[in-house]
Amino acid sequence: MVLTPPEETTTRPAASWCEAPPITDANAGLPDWYLDLRSTAWDRYSALPVPARTNQHWRFADLKHLVIEGHAPAAPVSASVGADLIARAVSERPADYAAHFVFANNRLLHAETPGLPAGATCLPISEALTAHPELLREHFLKNGDFLGGEKFAALHAAATLSGLFVHFPKGAVAEHPVIVHHFVGGEGVVIFPHTLVVSEDHASVTVLDLFESIDGNEDSLIVGMADLHADRGGRVQYAAVQDLSERGAKHVQLQHTRAGRDASVKVGFLNLGAEWVRNESINRMVANGADCQIFSANLANGVQEYDQRTLQSHEALHTTSDLFFKNALYDRARTIFSGLIQVQPGSHHTDSYQTCRNLMGSEEAEANSMPGLEIDADQVKCSHGSTSGTISDEEIFYLRARGIPAEDARKMISLGFLNESIDRLDGEGLKEILFARVERKFAAIV
């Protein structure tokens, strides 16, 4: 594990990220509260500085990745490209699903909702703003705290958004996941996918976001956000798969959770592609008995950098959380993990864990881990830890003795290492998609 920050890199003025509000929709039909929110967000974006080394939330980050000036909203794809992308997305989805949406360059291409329960709402954000403005307003962009990504969040709020609003009323349960494909293509383009999931009392929903490049080697940027709300006894499972081009693509994903009384939320991240990734995951247990579990599996090679910052905030009695992150690194790849368990005053009987494990496949790879605890309550059980290591010669010898070549043995061990995190999610179809993606990248590395 390397604890030396990279060489300081000068960044250009913040306004150069986008020179004007990245808006491509017409204002007709959009509610006034949303237009005001968007205008205020642009003013906030313009006033906020670019993250700097003095910001602890950007410790160990290579700031050269923030030199991303001149990006503009992506143009629509052609009809033929759109048809190809729909076919590609359909081929990748599981056999059973509650709904399937395909977006390309911030625009909806395809929608199916064969398995939604009665009363459930599953609409693109743009449609939900006009069809259910007050229902959306109750939960939309209500989180103002971030782990260094405030400027990205303001840019996101000021933009035309794609993505879904998923609302499950009391008692609604979907047996299969909602699948959402987000494709991006074009040089110097940016898209803004937004996922808002609300599970009311004893409702249950799973949402899978997949982020992919249309073509390779393009300087594209995704600034995404996922807000997850689970009320009394509600259940939300959310997974984000990032499989963008390894050369030029950048991805910022900001995620918030609010778990109410006896609610359960599972969040999973799988990072495979992109040149640079910034994940921020804030999970709040705001009522008694709430539970949040956060998992991540990351396979980095080349010169990829995966930067993940997390907060587990316990704000009530008898709350629980478990964070389990795994990174496998090859070549000159870098990962950064900074996680904090925070037990607020009066949040007695908290039970919380935080684990980050790094598998180093190269002497030039770099893993930085910064776990932490802040406890202001009594009768709590909290622990955190981080480990880094290589595949042992004994493990390779054991498998070679059974006729397995050394390279295959390393692949098997690495796959098992990452799949341990993925396996904590629910749903065989969902896990099979993630397992297959990891195996496909390992094959490319080998």
How would you explain this protein's 3D organization?
The protein is of the alpha/beta class and 446 residues long. The protein is built from eight helices and 21 strands. It has one domain (14-394). The protein has helices spanning 32-47, 79-92, 125-131, 133-137, 150-157, 393-400, 406-422, 428-445, and strands at 72-73, 99-104, 107-112, 121-124, 162-168, 178-184, 189-191, 193-199, 204-213, 221-230, 235-243, 250-259, 264-271, 276-285, 291-300, 305-314, 320-329, 334-343, 351-360, 366-375, 381-389. The chain is globular and about 70 Å long. The two termini are 23 Å apart. Mean pLDDT is 91; it is low at 1-15.
Summarize the structure.
The chain is α/β, with parallel strands linked by helices and 446 residues long. Helices cover 21% and strands 38% of the residues.
User: In sequence order, what are the helices and strands, one letter per element?
Assistant: HEHEEEHHHEEEEEEEEEEEEEEEEEHHH
Number of strands: 21
Q: Kindly provide the radius of gyration, computed on alpha-carbon positions and rounded to a whole number of angstroms.
A: 21 Å
Q: State the share of residues found in helices, binned by percent.
A: 10-25%
Shape: globular
Q: How many angstroms separate the termini?
A: 23 Å
Unreliable residue runs: 1-15
**What can be said about the biggest beta sheet?**
11 strands, mixed
Number of contiguous helices: 8
Indicate how many domains the architecture comprises.
1
Average residue-wise pLDDT: 91
Query: What is the strand content?
Result: 35-45%
Category from helices, strands and their pairing: alpha/beta
